[in-house]
């Protein structure tokens, strides 16, 4: 709020009013443990595409493709140890793709 002072004629800013602060944090959304989901469709509906992508990335797995493909990939490894996960599901370093792009550009 702007307050006018009569002595100087200049406008001054009034001190901001204290905003009410909520003491209790908002409850976290109720998300099932992803390992207990009944299907990839349920997993996608419960977690959402971004959360599934983050989980895959944190596990070092490929995280590209459509949201349902990512959900199916995560669902397929839900009860496996890291040693039991097929090597084809792990993300690569990306060097192979750059090499293929360079070969394509050089043609």
- Label the structural class: mainly alpha
The proportion of residues in beta strands is 5-15%
**Secondary structure tally, helices:** 4
Give the number of DSSP strands.
Answer: 2
pLDDT < 50 stretches: 25-31
Compute the average pLDDT. 75
What would the principal axes of the Cα set say about the shape? Answer: globular
- Could you give the order of strands across the largest sheet? 1-2
Outline the structure in words:
Helix content is 38%, strand content 6%. The protein is mainly α. The chain has a two-stranded antiparallel ribbon. The longest helix has 12 residues, at 95-106. Mean pLDDT is 75; it is low at 25-31.
Provide a concise account of the structure shown.
It is built from four helices and two strands. The chain is mainly alpha-helical and 107 residues long.
How are the SSEs ordered, and which strands pair?
Blueprint: E1 2-4, E2 11-13, H1 40-47, H2 49-59, H3 67-76, H4 95-106
Antiparallel strand pairs: 1-2
List keywords for this structure.
single chain; 107 residues; mainly alpha; 4 helices; 2 strands; 6% strand
């Amino acid at each position: 709020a702007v307050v006018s002072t009569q002595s100087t004629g200049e406008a001054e800013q009034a001190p901001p009013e204290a905003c009410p602060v909520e003491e209790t944090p908002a409850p976290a959304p109720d998300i099932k443990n992803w390992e207990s989901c009944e299907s990839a469709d349920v997993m996608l509906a419960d977690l959402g595409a971004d959360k599934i992508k983050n989980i895959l990335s944190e596990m070092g797995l490929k995280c590209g493709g459509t949201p349902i493909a990512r959900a199916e990939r995560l669902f397929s490894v839900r009860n496996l140890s890291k040693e039991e996960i097929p090597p084809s599901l792990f993300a690569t370093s990306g060097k192979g793709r750059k090499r293929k792009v360079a070969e394509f550009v050089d043609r």
